[in-house]
Structures are given as C-alpha cells and as structure tokens.
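Hi team,

Below is the intake form for Sphingomyelin synthase-like domain-containing protein from Oesophagostomum dentatum. Please confirm the fields before the structure is written into the shared record.

FORM ID: S-0412
PROTEIN: Sphingomyelin synthase-like domain-containing protein
ORGANISM: Oesophagostomum dentatum
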Amino acid sequence: MICVVVSRIHYSVDVVMGYWISSIIFSVYHGFCEVPHPLRPHNRAFRRLFLFWTMFELERYVPEGRIPNQLQWPLPWPKAISEKFDEWNKQSDKSTMGRIALWLAEHRLEFHF
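The structure came back. Fields below:
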C-alpha cells in the first residue's frame, strides 16, 4: 500500500490502462456474441483479433438465441432453498417465488441494438 501512495501517478496510469483494456475486451466479446453462430468463422473483422480463436472455442457449444434463465441449487441441503429454486423455475402463480419470477419476466428491460 505504501508503494501505491509513494508512486502516485504510476497507480493512476495502471487504473486507466486496466479500464481501457477491460473496456475493449468487453466490447469485442459482446460484439462477437451478436454475430450469428454460422457467420462467426467467416467474419473478417473478428478473425484479425488475437482473442478471436479463444472466444470462438469458448462459445462453440453455446446454443444460439436466448439462454433460458433456470436456476439450480448445487447442494442436497437445505431442502428449503432447493425448493425455492424449483418454484422459481416453474414460474407459477401458486408460489411466492413463482410470482416474483413472473413479475421480473414481465418487467424485464428490452434492449434493441
């Protein structure tokens, strides 16, 4: 911590560079995800990027379109939490979690890019 305080300007440069690099990677990745699956290997703009083949391999088996919002409790206990996740996935008017999930689905923000 003392080195950060002593080097004052050096820390600011690190923060600015980190922000710049992470913003570029975020923008490129989300632009890559907007391109339909069959067109990705043939898109010349992405093929020139260093990260293209890494992103292509990571996204190879992801289904096209919106991924369903289904939750699952990873542990066999406690049962109460596991039941809440099941209620969330069913989205019925009979349970509190189902009503919350339905309300959130109805009031979801729509982005049109």
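SUMMARY LINE: Residues 1-65 form one domain.

Thanks, M.
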